[in-house]
Amino acid sequence: MLKIENLHASINGSEILKGLSLEINAGEVHAIMGPNGAGKSTLASIIAGKEDYEISSGNISFDGKDLLELSIEDRAREGVFLAFQYPVEIPGVSNVNFLKTAINEIREHKGLAPLSAKDFLSLVKQKSALVDLDASLASRAVNEGFSGGEKKRNEIFQMAMLEPKLAVLDETDSGLDIDALRIVAGGVNALKSKENATLVITHYQRLLDYIVPDFVHVLYDGKIVKTGGKELALELEEKGYDWIKSAE
Amino acid sequence: MAGYTEEQLAKDLENSEYQYGFVSDIDSDVVPAGLNESVIRLISSKKNEPEWLLNFRLKAFEVWCSMEEPEWAHVTYDKPDFQSISYYAAPKKAKKYESWDEVDPELKATMAKLGISLEEQQRLTGVAVDFVIDSVSVGTSFKAKLAELGIIFCSFSEAVQEHPELVRKYLGTVVPMTDNFYAALNAAVFSDGSFCYIPKGVRCPMELSTYFRINAGGTGQFERTLVIADESSYVSYLEGCTAPQRDENQLHAAVVELLALDQAEIKYSTVQNWYPGDKDGKGGVFNFVTKRGLCETKSKISWTQVETGSAVTWKYPSCILKGDHSVGEFFSVAVTNNRQQADTGTKMVHLGRHTKSTIISKGISAGYSQNSYRGLVQIQKQAEHARNFSQCDSLLMGSVCGAHTFPYIECKNPSAQIEHEATTSKIGEDQLFYCQQRGISEEKAISLIVNGYCKEVLNQLPMEFAVEAQKLLSISLEGSVG
């Protein structure tokens, strides 16, 4: 589904990703772990299409399409979803209006008719239950006045609504207490299917107790230096990143 | 409602030309250019006016001749040559229609382009529309129904003929001809406009609506509106403007006077979309308007405006809170793009005790435009326990536009409570990225963010107006990012 080959990317002249390769197939859950500054969030931003980065070489294909050639919104419409580490507030725009606009843009891209208000609302009801999101949050302005945990749950709610093929969760566990973590992870697991894939970016092994990965990759200094099964996460947790660094 | 708007938006956004830039081919009866006493006499006689009104005009002309064009506003423009403007244009076939079948098809086509088919409005929304094309009212609907309640809603000229006592009693009492340069000019040469009277204790059952429109090339438009809400009455009045595209600047100097007698309430909503000029600032309407309301005891006047058009705007809908416990409100969204300049705001003059005013102003500047809020909150000596709350927000798009705030507060009574809040912000790259990551195009994202920012004001508008206003916001901000 997603194939990244030898990706080199820099921002303001300094190279962050130095030949990263990664392949994700439908039905898989991948986790990327790594120390601060390794390039984890950069990778998420580049997949989503943030324009601040310069790609000097390498390529990314998504379902056979050249992802780097697509605009931000077209990537989203093709099924790329990024759960933000720091979701932004959009004052005065209700979550419902925001999502209805997004869903209908995606549907239009797929040649489908807009969702009726009735169908949309029943979808909201169904999906908000997945992450135990208070119905009143759906009618409030996007992320405005939400607590940290509510923002993260809202990200997963949006993911549930938009049904992406590839969901990239950027440090979704940061700032979550254990109960919220369980709810968020429960939502992600419930959305898992044979057709979609998940890329979890995290610092800590903790999240992976709840979202169990098929593959764990260690990102260090702009490259994936080690790949293994879920036990690799435990090993990392135990030995720390210095273990990887010294192995270099 | 929001959903409906979003879908409409996509279509609107496809067309980046000024949407209402067309010229209707209706024969006009135009008075030769220039302004002098005989032109004023000609206008007055063409309109078959009584002598007192002619004298009113002549007096105003005299006052105007002694005045200078004001320069304090934060706008720059080539001053109009008042001698090259024609001061009167009326469609030649300016007869009254018994039914809408009789209406000139050309006129109907014009209305269709504006998206305000009168029949449909009548049928679907119950809005009575007094459609003004080039100064002469060609149709007033729902008149019979309003008449049953004793409500008078007609063109200004008609009111002069049929209700001279009311016009004479109130004309110029809120905005005196000596008020300012443009008010004096309007008093001298006003062509037509709307008149509305709501009798004591009557609640007007429908939104009263007038669509103004400049049509003939080079014709200044001088509308005069007078709304009188008698004791304990209520009326909601809508004014919407679109103007066809023109190369030369067109002058628009309207005067609106509102009178809310004891315990009456007037809600006055405007969507203004005169031609703003092209990308380089060529053409466009000069909009120099004087709008003011007078509040008697326990009455309330609420101004809501969405200003997206005009090359230069100079407009301060104001409230004189004369009566005790009277309330004044001003809700405004002003959008400027390209080379547009707007200097707009309000004056809240507190004379009575326990008077209360609220000001919510949202300015949006894009392109090379300049957007100024200018407001005065004045608490007079006798105005015990007066209260004001002002909030002025500015949103900037791009780095070469300007947002300015000129809030004046004059307080002569220590019991007053005055609050002023102001913010300036930019549409964040991260907000746009967030929307786009969810599949929303950049243009739509901007429209979402801007509409969210203006929500408090848009919520004040009647439903069908709010939809139109949201569309206008998006159209006028097209291509302003990136």
Architecture overview:
- By secondary structure, chain A is of the alpha/beta class.
- Chain A has one domain (2-247): P-loop containing nucleotide triphosphate hydrolases (Rossmann fold).
- Chain A contains 9 helices and 12 strands.
- With 482 residues, chain B is an alpha/beta fold.
- Chain B has one domain (2-476).
- Helix content of chain B is 26%, strand content 34%.
- Chain B contains 13 helices and 23 strands.
- In chain B, strands 5, 6, 8, 10, 11, 13, 15, 16, 18, 20 and 22 form an 11-stranded mixed β-sheet that branches. A 10-stranded mixed β-sheet of chain B has the order 4-3-7-9-12-14-17-19-21-23.
- In chain B, helix 3 (51-65) packs antiparallel against helix 9 (181-189).
- Chain B is globular.
- Residues 1-19, 91-97, 120-128, 133-140 and 212-219 of chain B have low confidence and may be disordered.
- Chain A binds chain B through residues 48-50, 71-73, 75-77, 81-82, 84, 87-88, 90-94, 97-106, 109, 114, 117, 141, 158, 162, and chain B through 2-3, 6-7, 428, 430-431, 433-442, 444, 448-449, 451-456.
CATH architecture of chain A: 3-Layer(aba) Sandwich
Series of secondary-structure elements of chain A, N-terminal to C-terminal: EEEHEEHEEHHHEHEHEEEHH
Strand content of chain A: 25-35%
Mean pLDDT of chain A: 92
For CATH, the homologous superfamily of chain A is named as: P-loop containing nucleotide triphosphate hydrolases
Which range best describes the helical content of chain A: under 10%, 10-25%, 25-40%, 40-55%, 55-70% or over 70%?
25-40%
Number of helices of chain B: 13
